[in-house]
Task: structure prediction
Amino acid sequence: MRIAFFTPEFPPLTVGGLGVYSAEISYAFSREGHYVDVFTLGSITQDPLDELSPNFLVHRFKTTLDPHSVCEIGNAFCYNIGMANLFFNEIDKGKCYDVVAINDWLSSVAGLIIKEKCKLPIFFHLHSNEPVRMYGGGSEIIKTLEWLMVEACNRIIVKCYAMQDAVWGEGYPTSKISLVYSGCDPLKYDPVMVNESLIDELRAMYGVEPGDKVVLFIGRITWIKGVEPLLVAFRKIVESEKNVKLIILGVPGDAYDGAIETATRLNLQDYVRFRFELVPEQEKIAHYGMSDLCVFPSLAESSGLACLEAMSMAKPVVVGATGVSVLREFVVPAGPEQNGVHVNPKDPDDLARGIKWVLSNPSREKIGRKGRDRVVSYFSWKNSALKTLDLYKDSIKGLTRKLAAESDF
Result:
């Protein structure tokens, strides 16, 4: 197959999980022998075309837009039209595509333009939607774009049962919806890949003393990721446990000011370390390697890539498990296969309970190894890609049959 893959984020312009997903799943498609053309946002200093391999091209719409501003509606319209133009330029050159993949509302305008002009199967990769992201509120324009894409596409791919149930409840057509979990690379995120000297540097930088236990949060600093309830919970933890540090690593978002204010108000300066940036891959792996447990107290989470990375690094995890949460599907909270703890992310007492339970558990390392086993067995990018490719192939066959029937008629 030749796949046209639309995403606003693709390395090196990556802001969050969508950029990671876009890169990993499209690379996995190409490793399975398919041709992939990625249409994405580029900076004015980047070449408009990257040939990563003979069957993998990245077409970049060159712009001065900051990657962090792509979710602003006006900017989204601008780069979508640019990406659609790049696509039609390839069509004009004689290139034929079998499938068009649209990622979230952020690429929906390009998808709607292509739907109007081409008879191609269009897949809507729905990582989240506006009612889930904004707890039922949010932009009416974005909701409309999502619904238009739902109506136009041949199939919707969601990332967890919780998201599937949510969109069913909103009236999305059940016949169009398929579930494919996101993945992780257990060869990259492997405890044996940790650079021990880099861990020593990080411990010195963060002021982690010998004997300190490290709790790690990785994610965008947004309210939906539960950073502020986590800080309140940590205040409760340090009242009885002094040799513990919380490291919060991620790019700033709408909870940036609130997180700093909360940590200051609760006098957590000796226990919490903030680092508001996207670090290189090896440094991120070293952060996982340095930690005793990882915590992801999201109020809603439909993809959960950082949680899978932590599990793959054999770290026990404490996860928000209410609302639309893929995390409760990743994490076994009890029994012989337990790899973490479920908590109510809105309840700092419950968060503190879960973290304390893991920190004090003598089987902590065994629990972490169970998480890695789950990633290897169920959540690799290869598994995710193969299931997605099967859905693509089925839609191509269905469209071919439909066109043949129309031709006969």
Notes: The chain has two domains: 2-183+380-408, 191-378. DSSP finds 15 helices and 14 strands in the chain.
